[in-house]
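To: structure desk
From: M.T.
Subject: fold request, one chain
Message: Could you run this one when you get a chance? Sequence is below, nothing fancy, just the single chain.
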Amino acid sequence: MSLALAAYRLLTGMLEPLAPRLLDARAKQGKEDPRRVDERLGIASLARPAGHLVWLHGVSVGETLSLLPVVEQFAKGRPDLTVLVTSGTVTSAELLAQRLPAGVIHQFAPIDAPGAVAAFLDHWQPTLGVFVESELWPNLIQAARRRGVPLALVSARITEKTAEGWARFPGAARTIVGGFDRILPQDSVSADRIRSLGGRIDGLVNLKLAGGPLPHDAAAFTALSAAIGDRPVVVAASTHDGEEIAIVRALDRLTERLCLILVPRHPERGAEIATALTRDGYRFALRSRGTTPNAETDIYVADTLGELGLFLRLADVVVMGGSFGSVLGREPWGGHNPLEPARLGKAAVAGPDAANWREVTEALTAAGGLAVVASPGDLPNVIAPLLNDPAAAKAMGERARRGAADAGAGLDRLWETLQPLLPGAGR
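Reply: Done. Structure tokens follow.
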């Protein structure tokens, strides 16, 4: 063990007695689930089923949702295995409670302290651990390796800042990345950074490109569709502060009356959005208050969790949020997943910020399934022709669907790479 890793283990061990108090404070702030806070200390809230168990881990919403296709693949390809999914945030736990198949277990991940990690691993005894994106927790990785648990780091994304931080401790970096039996980065940039830290690359896979359409409640779709009536629907998906009002004002220039559905990236911002819309005199309804749009409603604020699939299905055109930060004087958010509307065959428009989804954005744009505009003010010029020509919008959506199918081919490659690490396969 390198000196840096030994010092880290010693320090986290010394601080661990303070963890219960810190976790309780976080629970009071809504950052931990008070009913399940012991899981963060490695104390399981559920019994371990008999037999082999595969452990999948992602820290937050995006990472854990990207694991869902892998969960489904295990359910189909290896139903003999129990699947445990761990995450680190309250929001991710709430979404997984809605989305995980029956029989799949969710627990909060343990803090990276020696006692919590040991308790977690002693109870769950995983046969394989699969970490997604950039979860490089030294105590957790080393403890799993000492127990002989094979590990895979998949859809790995290492930022320049993270790579520079690990590079200051080259011995520790080699030990940590060398602890993975398989490493499959998202892209060539992350692959180069991991190689520079001493890791071996086994291929590329981006799990956020895999998977099928987002789910929805069919009854809710029928009710909302009837409430909206014949008006065309534009959905602004995963919007951030400032984008909602900018999009609303831009679409005011459309001559046709439509129903605009705003789906904020963070649903807790619903009240804030309502205040801004009230100030500017717009007629709107908030889904979190149990209201539905009617003939007088111009804007529907969909400030609820896990219903994006429902609203995308209602859309004639989708505007991707998180893509206009730079032109609104905010720090760029990097865009959000344009594959979500594409998988449903929806015509979509995005702003200039796409750092998090650059390759996908370029591919969908080249395929004619996504339009990119310079600012919210340019939206009417793209959206009006699509609303006036439903056949053109449908054709654009079909091009997007085909592009999404091409982008999602990496799941089969990942599944093949994991096979030698599963029970029953020779390693």
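Reply (cont.): The radius of gyration is 23 Å. Let me know if you need anything else for the meeting.
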